[in-house]
Amino acid sequence: MGTFKIEGGHQLKGEITPQGAKNEALQILCAVLLTDQKVTIHNIPNIIDVNKLIDLLENLGVKIQKIGSSSYTFKADDVHLEYLQSEEFKKDGRGLRGSIMLVGPLLARFGKGYIPKPGGDKIGRRRLDTHFEGFIKLGAKFRYNREEYFYGVEAKSLKGADMLLDEASVTGTANILMAAVLAKGTTTIYNAACEPYLQQLCKMLNRMGAKISGVGSNLLTIEGVEELGGTEHTMLPDMIEIGSWIGLAAMTKSEITIKNVSWENLGQIPMVFEKLGIKIERRGDDIFVPEHKKGYEIQNYIDGSVLTISDAPWPGFTPDLLSIVLTVATQARGSVLIHQKMFESRLFFVDKLIDMGAKIILCDPHRATVIGHDFESQLKATTMTSPDIRAGVSLLIAALSAQGTSTIHNIEQIDRGYQDIDSRLRAIGARIVRVD
Ligand SMILES: CC(=O)N[C@H]1[C@@H](OP(=O)(O)OP(=O)(O)OC[C@H]2O[C@@H](n3ccc(=O)[nH]c3=O)[C@H](O)[C@@H]2O)O[C@H](CO)[C@@H](O)[C@@H]1O
Ligand SMILES: C=C(OP(=O)(O)O)C(=O)O
After folding, report:
1. Ligand nearest to the CA of 127
2. Is 23 annotated as a binding residue?
3. Residues 6+ apart with CB under 8 A from 262
4. Which residue among 214, 254, 279, 398 is buried most deeply as judged by most CB within 10 Å?
């Protein structure tokens, strides 16, 4: 179990460039299985989850070549389906959430797709019904081995269908979409997730020869095609990382420029931080966060009532930034209610912030009220364990703003989504070391 030691209370300054998007990478990498042609992908983040998925593809027989620091080619012209039945796959397939999206492409191209219950953050129930209900609608037979938590779908051929998803699941939409592109006839997916990463996947599939319309909306129409060809694709910058750095800048009263953020794909992210009173300047495609010498003040609603920040499927605010927003609010002027609607166990990390001196009332598993300190009392350093990726980064930001030296254990949770976080933060002045 790795550990960070962080000496807090120092201002940072400089530029930071976001890595390629983790959650886009997981979709795009699975899509390479849809063709026997070469697919070239750029801006792939070097993080644990992505590397685990690349290993799974390699074990499936995909030929992989690293052609640059973050660029790879993939060729799935000789896929070893027997690996899917192996004990090794039952273990490795569990290692991350994104592995679930291997199922759609495998089912579409080879008539079968299997997966052990995938991993990812333990942040509440993470059901897979939407995925499998979609595959069943396309004509697949479903089986589930309860003892081994092993899921499987099989079909001689898939047939297009109209479906209304029970929820706008991000990985569910990607998975069903990747099956539908090779189904016979037309599929419509209503209540589809439509975040930028899914739009990227649709665009990539269309470049490969798929016929998807409605990209960016919650109604996708897919005319099935016989086969797909190769393509070249570049990942967007990671919007959750961008939001993390905005929060970091404000809470450490630092002047930070976040480079090449792809503004048009940030949705509500800048707006939500602005509601906390954080100044964000657009400079070309960069975000400039000035030093907040006098702190930042949370806005109330027009009628004077307390601000609520909650998550919702895109174009709503992403649940993956709520832990960071909550943490940054602990030093604001004013109060805010954080309502995490999607996940039921994602707010328990506030106990650690409370230990550090933050004023937070956990109302129930989904809601927490934060009463900001306005920097009148600095958070105190402590020892903590990172429970999930975003809580981990939130605690790291809290530690960088706190007085004294904090210790964060279980930093693999952070490394699974943030590339070289310690050296990138050291480059802008953070005092953070990795101790084992
Ligand atoms: C690898 C990956 O891409 N992971 C992301 C993906 O996970 P993932 O695709 O697993 O998440 P889903 O979109 O399926 O659902 C997330 C949670 O929200 C609930 N839900 C979802 C949609 C909805 O309309 N109502 C609702 O309540 C689900 O029941 C579930 O508890 O999307 C989540 C939601 O943005 C993000 O937190 C994860 O980082
Ligand atoms: C919850 C997340 O990831 P995963 O779905 O991989 O657990 C996340 O990226 O915040």
Report:
1. 1
2. yes
3. 196, 236, 237, 239, 285
4. 398
Q: Is 170 in the pocket of ligand 1 (CB under 6 A)?
A: yes
CA-based nearest residue to 348, from 332, 366, 335? 366
pLDDT score at 322: 98
Inter-residue contact 93 to 86 (CB < 8 Å): no
Per the annotation, does 55 bind a ligand?
A: no
* Structural domain 3-18+237-434, CATH architecture: Alpha-beta prism (3.65)
Strands (DSSP E) contained in 155-207 are 162-164, 186-190
**Residues acting as catalytic residues:** 121
118 touches ligand 1 (CB under 6 Å): no
> Hey, where are the domains in the chain?
3-18+237-434, 22-234
**ipTM for the complex?**
0.98
The pLDDT assigned to 126 comes to 87
- The mean pLDDT of 408-421, rounded to a whole number, is 95
Q: What is the pTM of this model?
A: 0.97
* DSSP classification of residue 118: P
Q: Is the CB of 320 under 6 A from ligand 2?
A: yes
Which of the four CATH numbers 3.30.420.150, 3.10.20.310, 3.65.10.10, 3.40.50.300 does domain 22-234 have? 3.65.10.10
Reduced to 3 states, what is the DSSP secondary structure of residue 433? strand
* Nearest ligand to the C-alpha atom of residue 100: 1
